[in-house]
């Protein structure tokens, strides 16, 4: 997305756009600026960056493309294992139409196993 300002520079790759089984990936580059101050000598990818990764992928793979969506809430977040420089994040996105909004439940993992589970709530940008 052009002109985007966020904590993560690397692009999110959507392997299968739209639908309940969307898979997204992100290569966590050691040169990401967030590593400079987040536990020097023991770098960990911040949890907010995992949420950012899921949000970016979900916006690209939303089941109703062509409309303007935004995150209006974070329903759940649970971090289970640190993400380190050089890891590849993958997330399985599962969508639920919640009558005017959409819930996106994501299971995030690295090659070592589960890293996080979270649910984001999306509404249309112009919705009250």
Short description:
The protein is mainly beta and 128 residues long. It contains one helix and six strands; from the N terminus they run E-E-H-E-E-E-E.
Walk me through this protein's architecture.
The protein starts with 12 loop residues before the first strand and ends with a strand. Strand 4 and strand 5 form a beta hairpin. The chain is built from 1 helix and 6 strands. The model has no long low-confidence stretch (mean pLDDT 88). The protein has 128 residues and is mainly β.
Count every helix, treating DSSP H or I runs of 4 or more residues as helices: 1
CATH topology: Thiol Ester Dehydrase, Chain A
Considering DSSP H and I runs of 4 or more, what fraction of the residues is helical?
Answer: 10-25%
Q: Could you describe the largest sheet, including whether it forms a barrel?
A: 6 strands, antiparallel
Q: What is the count of structural domains?
A: 1
- What is the straight-line distance between the termini? 24 Å
Order of helices and strands: EEHEEEE
Descriptive tags:
1 helix, 11% helix, Thiol Ester Dehydrase, Chain A, elongated, single chain, 128 residues, six-stranded antiparallel beta sheet, mainly beta
